[in-house]
Design goal:
The chain is an alpha+beta fold. Helix content is about 20%, strand content about 45%. The chain has a single domain (about 15-150), classed as Protein Transport Mog1p, Chain A, CATH 3.40.1000. It is globular and about 60 Å long.
Length: about 160
């Protein structure tokens, strides 16, 4: 029985790291990277998407999050912005909003989150169809929570002769 369990565990591929602008996050199987580099945009095989980007340091995270959530909802028809939810501990602080609206005839739900992790700031936008939103929400939040700042050393400059 233990051998069978070990074989099953070995067959599940580990999440793969994806790099963005001075950050990385772990992307599990079933998601594919559409855009890497500055911002990271990943898409699930069901059509759900998650955008993660590094943002400039902000003095007032709640105000920034509200402004950006309103910006995200602008292209949606009949959009409704839910109330803010706040979280804070020693290393993380975030503000998130749930947005409901339509893209053409498709009912969409979006979870917008602005995050301060230690001294780095990020924003995440998870979007899925109304009927599929909850099924991938935990996985999308796990991916977003895996974001880690990557400290890059500046390139070595060579002395000119």
């Amino acid at each position: 029985m233990q051998v069978l369990l070990l074989l099953v565990l070995l067959q599940v591929p580990a999440p793969a790291p994806v790099r963005g602008d001075r950050f990385q996050l772990m992307v599990p199987q079933g998601w594919r990277t559409l855009n890497g580099g500055g911002d990271v945009l990943i898409e699930h095989s069901t059509g759900a998407s998650l955008l993660v980007r590094r943002i400039a340091q902000t003095k007032n995270l709640p105000d920034y999050a509200q402004h950006q959530a309103e910006r995200v909802m602008t292209p949606l028809g009949f959009a409704k912005l839910g109330g803010p939810r706040f979280f804070k501990d020693n290393h993380d602080e975030w503000v998130e909003y749930e947005i409901r609206g339509n893209r053409l005839s498709d009912h969409r739900r979006i979870l917008y989150r602005a995050l301060r992790r230690d001294t780095s700031f990020f924003e995440m936008v998870y979007e899925a169809g109304e009927d599929r939103f909850d099924s991938l929400l935990t996985e999308a939040q796990s991916i977003a929570s895996s974001v880690q700042a990557v400290i890059e050393t500046p390139p070595v400059r060579r002395a000119r002769r």
